[in-house]
């Protein structure tokens, strides 16, 4: 039996977002359309996928069994799209790469040099964004390939692959601050001082911090705020070393520094062309 791609997508999106209404908003369709699509899939399969008696629909035991198979169908479809792009070899005229300030390696610089030689006629654009802003730029077609720290979950239309090189993050404060004089700093002491927090455009209310907060969607701006003595922040070590002015001190705090994993991401609805796929492959190589 052949199942409607729309029904399968509605099912996956409902699982991802937690409700039929949220799935409808994500897919820009009416809730009734999503409900009908899922009902049609249930009829085709002959099982009930969601328990609709609770406030929010939850997967039934049958739904939990079906989910990995539907995910596998979409994963195979994504791989087929990638192969078709490679076989067609229709190189895109323009490539936009959105990059987190969190991640910076010599590997990245080497890739750009190779890219310049391999695709000299492509218009290339490099943007800086973080977390949800990277995902949003891929979803709306503003960018084709993105690098960001690993997220708890990703939308179904975003495909990711783990990179071999992560990002080391540490806690920094101005060298003249009293905490900078201590050999070790407790987290409860930090929470009495203003924290400089990363806040994206997509989720302006996603600041999770205790105590006073200043925020910015840019790690580079947070670095400047820290250098002006406005508070402490969690910053990439490479950013402080390369763009700082020697006025910040790395605090010794239990559990820090931390090495965060990083993903390369792209939209599976509008997958990158050969040049974008080449860049993804190079980013995934171990260096």
Automatic annotation (TrEMBL):
Sorted UniProt keywords: DNA-binding, Transcription, Transcription regulation
HTH lysR-type domain ranges (all copies): 1-60
Listed GO MF terms: DNA-binding transcription factor activity; transcription cis-regulatory region binding
SUPFAM superfamilies linked to this entry: Periplasmic binding protein-like II (SSF53850), Winged helix' DNA-binding domain (SSF46785)
Gene3D superfamilies membership: 3.40.190.290, Winged helix-like DNA-binding domain superfamily/Winged helix DNA-binding domain (1.10.10.10)
Pfam families: HTH_1, LysR_substrate
InterPro entries from the UniProt entry: LysR_HTH_N (IPR000847), LysR_subst-bd (IPR005119), WH-like_DNA-bd_sf (IPR036388), WH_DNA-bd_sf (IPR036390)
UniProt record similarity statement: Belongs to the LysR transcriptional regulatory family.
Identification of the protein by name: Hca operon transcriptional activator
Organism name: Cedecea lapagei
Gene, per the UniProt record: hcaR_1
């Amino acid at each position: 039996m052949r199942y409607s791609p729309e029904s399968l997508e509605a099912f996956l999106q409902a699982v991802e977002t937690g409700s039929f209404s949220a799935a409808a908003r994500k897919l820009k369709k009416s809730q009734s359309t999503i409900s009908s699509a899922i009902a049609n899939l249930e009829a085709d399969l002959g099982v009930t996928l969601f328990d609709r008696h609770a406030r929010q629909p939850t997967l039934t035991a049958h739904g939990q069994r079906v989910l990995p198979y539907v995910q596998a169908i979409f994963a195979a479809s994504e791989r087929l799209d990638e192969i078709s792009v490679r076989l067609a070899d229709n190189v895109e005229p323009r490539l936009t790469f959105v990059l987190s300030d969190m991640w910076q390696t010599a590997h990245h610089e080497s890739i750009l040099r190779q890219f310049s030689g391999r695709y000299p006629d492509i218009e290339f654009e490099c943007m800086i964004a973080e977390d949800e802003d990277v995902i949003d730029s891929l979803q709306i077609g503003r960018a084709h390939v993105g690098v960001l720290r690993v997220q708890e979950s990703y939308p179904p239309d975003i495909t990711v692959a783990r990179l071999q090189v992560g990002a080391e993050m540490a806690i920094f404060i101005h060298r003249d601050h009293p905490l900078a004089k201590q050999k070790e700093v407790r987290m409860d002491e930090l929470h009495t001082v203003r924290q400089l927090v990363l806040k994206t455009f997509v989720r302006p209310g996603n600041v999770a911090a205790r105590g006073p907060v200043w925020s910015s969607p840019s790690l580079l701006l947070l670095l400047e705020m820290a250098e002006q003595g406005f508070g402490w922040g969690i910053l990439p070590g490479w950013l402080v070393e390369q763009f700082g002015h020697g006025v910040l001190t790395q605090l010794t705090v239990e559990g820090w520094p931390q090495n965060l994993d990083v993903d390369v991401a792209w939209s599976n609805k509008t997958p990158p062309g050969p040049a974008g796929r080449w860049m993804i492959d190079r980013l995934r190589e171990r260096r």
